[in-house]
Amino acid sequence: MTHSIPVSLPDSSYNVAIAPQQLPQLGTTLKTLKLGKKILVISNPDVFNVYGETVMTSLEDAGFETASHLIAAGESHKTLATVAQIYDMALGQRLERSSTLLALGGGVIGDMTGFAAATWLRGIHFVQVPTSLLAMVDASIGGKTGVNHPQGKNLIGAFYQPKLVYIDPLVLKTLPDREFRAGMAEVIKYGVIWDRELFALLEQAPQLATLQQLTPDLLTAIIARSCQAKVDVVTQDEKEAGLRAILNYGHTMGHAIESLTGYGAINHGEAVALGMIAVGRMATHLGLWSTEDEGRQRALIAKAGLETCIPQAIAINDLLNTLQWDKKVKDGKIRFILPDGIGKAVISDQITERVIREAITEVTED
Amino acid sequence: MTHSIPVSLPDSSYNVAIAPQQLPQLGTTLKTLKLGKKILVISNPDVFNVYGETVMTSLEDAGFETASHLIAAGESHKTLATVAQIYDMALGQRLERSSTLLALGGGVIGDMTGFAAATWLRGIHFVQVPTSLLAMVDASIGGKTGVNHPQGKNLIGAFYQPKLVYIDPLVLKTLPDREFRAGMAEVIKYGVIWDRELFALLEQAPQLATLQQLTPDLLTAIIARSCQAKVDVVTQDEKEAGLRAILNYGHTMGHAIESLTGYGAINHGEAVALGMIAVGRMATHLGLWSTEDEGRQRALIAKAGLETCIPQAIAINDLLNTLQWDKKVKDGKIRFILPDGIGKAVISDQITERVIREAITEVTED
Predict the structure, then answer these.
(1) I want to staple B196 with a disulfide (CB 3.0 to 4.6 A). Which of A101, A254, A336, B343 is the partner?
(2) What is the CA radius of gyration of chain B?
(3) Which distant-in-sequence residues (6+ apart) come within 8 Å of B215 by Cβ?
(4) Is residue A189 scored above 60 in pLDDT?
(5) Conformation bin of residue B63: beta by default, left when phi > 0, alpha when psi is -120 to 50
(6) Closest CA to A169 of A18, A2, A51, A26
(7) How far apart are the first and last CA of chain A?
(8) pTM for the whole structure
(9) Which residues of A are known catalytic residues?
């Protein structure tokens, strides 16, 4: 059965549908929305190989005119040039304002497809069918779309909401373990900043490092709670004016780590986990967090099979310099999200460089 | 004195300020808005040569940190590649979310700068200082931003509202006559579809083909009424769901003419004038319009020094084929805006190809 989480925004409301083993019902679900007849599916070869036929058949059986366009996997393809390819395909298929771009894939596919949908004909319909844990619990919800600039991640983009996010948790069975663990970093984040019951659920789980040993029910519950956390936050702050910033817990530091290691050696989730480790330490130093809670976070991150030390190869001065470039810097001040308990967080741009430096040093490999 | 037209939209309200001879007060006016300290001015060499110093001095005197980036003039530069240059400059200047992109120029500069502002860091502040009549009365108001695709105008873009549109009508004194007349096409359009008093004002004006013989007061009145017409329509329909379509009177046909002649030989306003001529004829054929009103429109277009016949070089079959590609086509049907009086218009997608063909033939040069 399908669990629906409504996302209510002033201009555009939609549902996040969590539908275990329901991928073949995608077409009939879309049929209930007011979409035009054309759907262009954007995916990558790995995902499309496994799920392409199911999705295309489902859409065609529901009466849609379909086409697909594949983009090579990986963050390095998340560029304006790749979006230009989607534009060309949209033109070739004569997509109209009532047509739909459907993202079938992970966060890279979703972010780029969403940006193309936001900007083709000044906005056509957009549907997310995330196939990675990271995309399910994070990237697909909240309307952030975009591509990377050669000098920084997600610098080019738009806020643009999908008409539907359709999640079949069971598609994760083909996800590489490393990608699964990267998604768990975001799940743990929600536990720390928003949902202490989710945090407890994760602590009680037999393990978190691979999907194979999680029951479908536990997996679905973890995904549903994470999606609900993200929906709670983004519906209260669609355009990141205030509260939504707490979702960036671990991210400002994480982005800097990704940027310094060239986007790839350390993936997004792994970098966010390291960011949470570093910022968690800052929170403890500032007296906001207890050593015990910091330890519980570290234990969960380790349980998910994620690294808990920043690699020695990352020079602290490079890291501090890169932090200054982050788009969340306001008037030169770096804004950090600091946990102050399990399930809640505060925002501060008053952290001194000394505290940042000390925390990073302490959580870097010897 | 400044005449302010408020634009009230659900998410973003702003003013269109009509401020004759007030360009040097731009900085102090911006100071009253809540903008960050950095302003990057985007302009073209022709405009910046004449008004750059006034604008930059005004901004700096008001305490802003400024930089400028010039883009070669012309529609052919309205591309994703040029926007990428603006991104590079935004990065180089370390623009933050609170920073501002200011468009100083005509529609091309405004559309591209707006699109860059909409998509840099998922949206930074945007201010329009239009310097052509076309940009003042049309492009700068309503939030349409974007660039051309090699195969179609404005296919890539976003709806994004400025924080202020600041119009000094007197800057038009350096505008070439041909550009002035192109702007008059849009002014006449407002008269036909929305404002019969504006139409009458234009009929009573001693002439409309050059700025030099218009008094500053009459020029300001014409611009203010045109801006008010556009504001009236866009505030009732921000995202072009319904009413706003009437602003496309003459445009679907005009875009096709521009596209077929390679964007340039016939400029936007000239093409729109020809579009109004052709569609006006369709309206008369359909019994919606009187021969007398059609004649009054033709007389005004001629008075503004604009052509009233489609060039013979444009083959009717090419024109019909190009019309099918317009982004305002919905489920294969071409939607036309048809005047049914002076000051009002209706929307129809039920026009037969025979009527379209006949009207075009009749208004094409022998």
Answers:
(1) B343
(2) 20
(3) none
(4) yes
(5) left
(6) A18
(7) 50
(8) 0.89
(9) 122, 144, 186, 230, 240, 244, 248, 251, 255, 268
